Amino acid sequence: MFVTGTTPVAEGGGVDGVGDGYRQAVRCFEIIREALAAQGAEFSDIVRTRMFVTDIERWDEFGRAYQEAFG
């Protein structure tokens, strides 16, 4: 299964965590977790990830969320 093009879409629409890279990354991981679960998979089944960000200077925000998701 491939999961691609995930964006931080809020539950009711729009962008979740505007201006907050950490919150946006967390939301993306929530969406991915839901998609995986619907197919009987989980994060431990993931073999590769790639993140694209608009401001690499804020890598620590995204990295923190990534660490929380994957350990």
Verbal overview:
By secondary structure, the chain is an all-alpha fold. It has one domain (21-70). It has helices at residues 21-38, 59-70. It is globular, with a radius of gyration of 12 Å.
What is the H-and-E element order? HH
Indicate the radius of gyration in whole angstroms: 12 Å
Continuous helix count: 2
Sum up the overall morphology in one term: globular
Structural domains: how many: 1
Which class do the helix and strand fractions yield? mainly alpha
Give the percentage of residues in beta strands: under 5%
The unreliable regions are: none
Give a brief rundown of this model.
By secondary structure, this protein is mostly helical. It has helices at residues 21-38, 59-70.
Set down the secondary structure blueprint.
Elements: H1 21-38, H2 59-70
Keywords:
71 residues, mainly alpha, 42% helix
